[in-house]
Amino acid sequence: MTSRLRIAVQKSGRLADRSLELISGAGLRVMKGANELLYRIENQPIDLLRVRDDDIPTFVADGVAELGIVGYNVLAEHFPEDDLEERIVMRLGFGKCTLKIAVPDTATYEGPQSLEGKRIATSYPNILGKWLKDKGVTATIVEMRGAVEVAPRMKIAHAICDLVSTGATLEANGMKAVDLVLASEAVLIKAPHAPPADLEHVYDMLLRRFDGVTASTGAKYVMLNAPREHLDEIIELIPGADSPTIMPLAHREDTVAVHAVCQENVFWDTLDKLKAAGASAILVLPIEKMMK
Ligand code: ATP
Ligand code: MG
């Protein structure tokens, strides 16, 4: 049997679809087979290990999978802070959310000291414990697996520390977010050992392509004409473009063409500002693939 690389991904849940999109964006053809735990990649010696997100950090740390896609929050709950960066290969730009302290609408909160001596319900006891320690606050952590947001109403806790993206769940439960504990997004993590020698080229190719997909998500190619006298001002306005290409235009001494890759989306108000600064013939194109 030839060996195959394994990538641990969430089987179902908030990261599952985006993880598969990243994988297919990197040119891997996923075969959804009879085996629910393991999906085969048709065109590369790679398998996807489909598990609960809580299991991903341990599977990758133990080398059951060479790579894994998991929320930074889950990783940070599993391992001490000074140990996290070396496990992370890259940040993936999706699955963004924040771990926040929330209290009932009626409660007053004047900073972390307001939590002194209180009970706080959370599914993230390690992250919360460290945050409280950093703030010099002593509180009781009540560990809950789910439905953390009902804890105050049930008089189990005075406050909660939970993941928030829009705040709708908090609102529905009569609570407000009052402090930020951790900002999170999906990250690609790696096993401590090097990949098997015969798969090293596949491993390197994967990382290059994941990097390319992540970098091109939301990135745009901008082309415009700019009067020479306003060139610096116009380049300044193009978001996230470090070194644009400047080209002469035929029969137009006073105007140049500017081409730039923008690392972020370009909104209408940016176009308005470019226009006001003297830019014309502005084109914004999507970028399909990118390799740095
Ligand atoms: P599993 O069954 O795999 O254990 P889960 O219920 O623990 O799944 P999900 O709710 O699917 O987890 O969330 C997975 C990850 O998605 C979170 O750990 C977090 O990194 C990210 N995420 C993004 N937005 C949110 C959000 N609004 N609420 C919770 N998690 C979010
Ligand atoms: Mg989970």
From TrEMBL:
Activity regulation field: Feedback inhibited by histidine.
Source organism per UniProt: Asticcacaulis aquaticus
Keyword S-adenosyl-L-methionine assigned: no
Name under which the protein is recorded: ATP phosphoribosyltransferase
Domain Histidine biosynthesis HisG C-terminal: 219-289
Subcellular location: Cytoplasm
Functional pathway: Amino-acid biosynthesis; L-histidine biosynthesis; L-histidine from 5-phospho-alpha-D-ribose 1-diphosphate: step 1/9
Pfam families: HisG, HisG_C
Keyword Hydrolase belongs to the record: no
Obligatory cofactor(s): Mg(2+)
Major enzyme class: transferase
Homology family: Belongs to the ATP phosphoribosyltransferase family. Long subfamily.
Function: Catalyzes the condensation of ATP and 5-phosphoribose 1-diphosphate to form N'-(5'-phosphoribosyl)-ATP (PR-ATP). Has a crucial role in the pathway because the rate of histidine biosynthesis seems to be controlled primarily by regulation of HisG enzymatic activity.
Keywords of this entry: Amino-acid biosynthesis, ATP-binding, Cytoplasm, Glycosyltransferase, Histidine biosynthesis, Magnesium, Metal-binding, Nucleotide-binding, Transferase
